[in-house]
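Lecture 7, part B: from sequences to assemblies.

Below are the input chains for today's worked example.
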Amino acid sequence: MYPFDYHRCASAEEAKALLAELGDGRLLAGGQSLLPMMKLRFVMTGNVIDLRDCEELRGIDIGSGAVTIGAMTRHVDVASSKELATALPVLAELAGGIGDPLVRAQGTMGGSIANNDPAADYPAACLGLGATILTTAGEIAADDFFLGVFETALAEGELVTGVRYPVPAAAAYMKFRHPASRFALAGVFVARAMDGLRIAVTGAGSQGVFRWHEAEAALTADFAPEALDGAELDTSDLNSDIHADADYRGHLVRVMAARAVRKILAANR
Amino acid sequence: MREFGIGQSLPRTEDLRLVRGTGRYTDDIAPAGSARMYVLRSQHAFARIGGIAIDAALEVPGVLAILTGADATADGLGGFTSMVRRTGPDGQPNFEPPFAVIARDVTRYVGEPVAVIVAETLNAAKDAAELIEVDYEAQPCVADLALADAPGAPLVWEQCPGNLCVLTEVGDKSATDDAFARAAHVAQVDFRISRVAVSTMEPRTAVAEWSEADQRFTLHASIQNPHMSREQLAGVLGLPSHRIRAVALDVGGGFGLKGVPHPELALVMWAARRVGRPVRWTSERSEGFLADCHARDQIVHAELALDEEARFLGLRVRVKANFGAYLSLAGVHCALGNIGGLSGVYVLPAIHGEIRGLFTHTVPIGPYRGAGRPEASMMIERVIDVAARDLGMDPAELRRRNLIPADRMPYDTGFVFTYDSGDFPASQAKVQEISDWNGFERRRAGAWARGRLRGIGMAHVIEIAAGQLDEMGAIEVDTSGAIAVTTGMQNHGQGHETMYRQLIAEFMHVPPDKVSVRDCDTDQIPYGFGTGGSRSAVVAGFLLETLASKVIAKGKQVAAIMLEVEPDQIDYREGAVFAARDSNRSATLAEVARFAHQPMHLPPGFEGGLSHRQMTRLAGPTFPNGCHVCEVEIDPETGHLDFVGYWVSEDVGKAINPMIVKGQVHGGVVQGLGQALGEYIHYDEEGQLATGSFMDYQMPRALDMPAIGIVSSDTPSRNNPLGIKGCGEGGTVGALPAAMNAIADALGPLGITNFDMPATPQRLWRAIRDAGGMPHAMAAE
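Predicted structure of the full complex, as structure tokens:
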């Protein structure tokens, strides 16, 4: 690790002010991505601003037709929330499948979204549910938020404060884990909402999370796993590495999508 | 059964210390005034070094010294030598480049030490390392064993055309050729045994101090064999070995990796002497992937000749083994030292093997749980399954028909080994029963109905253990009757301390809490061979029994003086009491020990004290064996593999602690299954490590592993009085072929005849897809 100064603040506004004052500050939420990168000397920063005291950024609020979750809410809190298990079970299940117990005990939803790791789970939930990202500067639709690998629409000095998830009629998330890292090699989030059907794919795309519009159209016409067979998927936009080439990733996206559809159908039966 | 003695599953006495964070690992030691060492490593697999600019780095505050290959040359630093020599292609002794501790003008693998930075803090050392400029002139390299002897492949050493270091033959060529000439059937198979990283939980670590007053080093290190390490290090540093004290405290896993000396041990000592301060070094995980000796990495062709009755006539193997860029202490040994396992548990009249050892631009190969044993077992056990498939036979029946009968023990295989004992038919029958082998086809059909492929695989294990027969030990009884045990064998998680206490309870009737086990320290005992090759239980059983009998005999002499009778009238009884026969006079071990330490009460010339130290030598090695069954299910849609069942029938001879034996089998099996499933070191074409962290290197998780059913099928060894055989490696030796046979069996119905490890989802999915996928007809059956 390179040396740095450590700061703590108790609110998002305070953090924002500190960021502006320091110039080169990095925000520390759960630290499950930032700290390993710092330990490996891949990240160098003069200042780390720890958000752990920002109580206002924690919590799960079940509203009518939507669930709002604070940015500093840990994965374990989302996974074990009884209210969420009723209101939006797919999200609790997704959070319970992130990393391992140590990661879930520290990692936060806001940290995951702001980092936008191309194989993270939360971006798929945001995009799949058509969520709204709440920030210190206002609101950003998930469709406009995730711009590319580790890239978001957040402006300089803007913090994620929470996410508002519309509650869908039905939803499912299926992921195939990377055999080594256990991140998503291909994770597919399928949601049937009032305003239409959405499919978000994480882990597979070379530009990070994306919506699979062809499959959305096919499933809108016929909500059955077989309908996916005809949906195009451009594998030239998919990642290729020693664990999975684009061909295999594309196949896994189809399989996970079909399994998510089957899961929704089985739940409704 | 004696209280706390042999045969009981005593809880491990070291565990409370280890799991509560009160263990003493090398990295816990921070001598006053100690500095930290960081190693700058080569970024190139093969490069000439034009120069190394260190001036800017020396300016970093806190930097004490920066040492390079030029300094090493000036100080006459050598390299580690191979313990085994064979022949090269010209029939002469093979070319033997010692394992260099720091690169001079050329680097030959990514991760090779190029400079050593010593600083007040690790951060300062790392900062300095970033400012060192190495002028590399990169050369084309070869990192893949399959390409090492291809025409035009870059040469690691000019002295070795075709990168061929060792070319040797084993067995009887003409008898084997004859066997194949009259065979009714010949089965053959080609496969690759992947390259893996040992990945001990505790990384390699060392602390060195140079005493100017004593002109002597003290080295604390995470090693398996302080005495042997000390001799190797003395050679590298150009010192007599008594100028080095080597100590291993708690060690968090070794698996053979920490039995071979690595460059950093020498570098940390060299650095300590140069800066005149204690110097500490601990590998980081990413360094470990680069610079820990890797393991396995062989390419095999195997053929089995059978007669009309499916009896084995002969086995022929051709093996290419990767040595890496240098020969580590045990690199050649891993390819050749345990090749005797080829004969398996079978009547196999003729065997011939040709082994080629090749250099590549990769970190040297070293031992890893089994060290050539799993490789040899793969060769015989895989080709048997291929033969069974060819002949349409149950692989269990084919094996049963060819097993060495129990009544032929001891059995000379005619190849390398003579087996001391074992009942292989009984062992196979037991594992077939607990695994419901005969009911498998029903389970396969059930899996097919669920759209899953299912396979079962069997493999017999036999391996040489305690091949190193000698060991030194001491038992010292203090004036309270407490006993200290010292040996040259190091405990790195196996449970030596518990085992020693049970053996002392057995032989001296002293409870575990009165027995202490000394650190493995070259100042505590003059010699020792360390831990490795499944030897400790076998060696310790005989060693401690011998030592205990000497101490008791001495105690009887002392007791005779105390009780005023003749020594031959004294019995040593339960409760650690010396009693005069036919009388009510007796003295406890503590009373006798106290008396023995008061020479004024002893006759003139009588040797005081109650201790004994000696070396012992076993009559011969042992051959732990067993039969493994593995069952797998594969999701053809994703290529995901589940180990759904695993069963072992093991013969470790007499078990000192059955629970520890089971733990050793569990751990061994998991390491074998991990390699079959996905552990896999991959270098790219530039010789860069593509699997250099746990983000890319697939370590198995507990959830990936099946429940393991174990049944004992023990037959006592005839080569030591207690009948102990050893249990450290057999799990791994059996798991690799059992798993690969199970996977082949699952894929067989699709017409897939050759599938290499690792069974990663991508590789399985592709193989299944290329074979046309799982036919609907199968699922409907």
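Note for the exam: The domain at 1-50 of chain A is CATH 3.30.43.10 (Uridine Diphospho-n-acetylenolpyruvylglucosamine Reductase; domain 2). Keep this in mind when comparing with the next example.
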